[in-house]
Design brief:
Elements (H helix, E strand, L loop, with lengths): L1 E2 L9 H11 L16 E10 L4 E10 L5 E10 L9 H14 L7 E5 L11 H9 L3 E5 L17 E6 L2 E7 L8 E7 L3 H10 L8 H19 L2
Parallel strand pairs: 1-4, 2-5, 5-6
Antiparallel strand pairs: 2-3, 3-4, 6-9, 7-8, 8-9
This protein binds 2 DNA strands through strand 2 and helix 2.
Cofactor: Mg(2+)
Family: Belongs to the endonuclease V family.
Function: DNA repair enzyme involved in the repair of deaminated bases. Selectively cleaves double-stranded DNA at the second phosphodiester bond 3' to a deoxyinosine leaving behind the intact lesion on the nicked DNA.
DNA sequence: GCGACAG
DNA sequence: ATCTTGTCGC
């Protein structure tokens, strides 16, 4: 079955920006979720089949201490919004909500692909998902988008401020020695220091968090299963 | 106006 | 995101 779009979901860019402006003040920057390495952590990701206007979302719950998979869920929906830089949430969140709703386990901390407060209006995908669900969330992106940062050490754990002008909106964080950093930011109910700690706890072997890697694989597989049996 | 621009 | 071959290295 196909996940629908939430009531009142914006249809155009102006309406979408208005939604961001209306919700941005609800973001909580304090650490009120599970501590790094405790409870559960859930990876979220989405894959597209533009030709058929379909989107598959995946949610993978891991035990934060062992990184073992506790539960997996997927949801399929229609593409709800075009890709517009700064409005990614409107494209991905409807299907993601479907996958989260299918879980029986408490998601704990939700790790998103993309940004939270590191956003032109300080309300990226991770923050938006957090405010909508009330869950603690954080963003881990592969690219710095339009933000700037100075150089950082080559060792895993090195970090430097990700800036929008003079404001620190996130961090560039090295998760593997000598490998390109990831770009992390607060989503909801986490602190920036906490985001870095959680990210390092999720990257014992690869540049990207285990949550992201598992969710990425699952939503791609879900899309393939869909092609095999339309 | 032009280019850049999370996924 | 997605389209795609080989290739260097542990």
């Amino acid at each position: 079955m196909i996940t629908g779009v939430p009531e009142g979901w914006p249809t155009d860019e102006a309406a979408a920006r208005a939604v961001q402006d209306a919700l941005r003040d609800r973001v909580v920057r304090d650490e009120t979720g599970p501590a790094p390495g405790t409870g559960t952590v859930t990876g979220i990701d989405v894959a597209y089949d533009d030709a058929r206007d379909l989107v598959a979302a995946a949610a993978v719950v891991l035990d934060a201490a062992t990184l073992d998979v506790v539960e997996e869920a997927t949801a399929v929906g229609r593409v709800a919004f075009p890709y517009v830089p700064g409005l990614l949430a409107f494209r991905e969140i409807p299907a993601v909500l479907g996958a989260l709703k299918a879980l029986r386990t408490d998601p704990g901390l939700v790790v998103c692909d993309g940004y939270g407060l590191a956003h032109p209006r300080r309300f990226g995908l991770a923050s938006h998902l957090g405010v909508l669900t009330g869950l603690p969330t954080m963003g881990v992106a592969k690219n710095p988008f339009a933000f700037e940062h100075g150089s950082l050490g080559q060792e895993r754990g090195s970090a430097v401020a990700l800036r929008d002008g003079d404001e620190e909106v996130g961090r560039a964080l090295r998760t593997r020695d000598g490998v390109k950093p990831v770009y992390v930011s607060v989503g909801h109910r986490v602190s920036l220091a906490g985001v870095c700690a959680h990210t390092l706890a999720l990257t014992p072997a690869y540049r990207l968090p285990e949550t992201t890697r598992r969710a990425d694989r699952l939503c791609r597989d879900a899309l393939i299963d869909l092609s095999a049996r339309p």
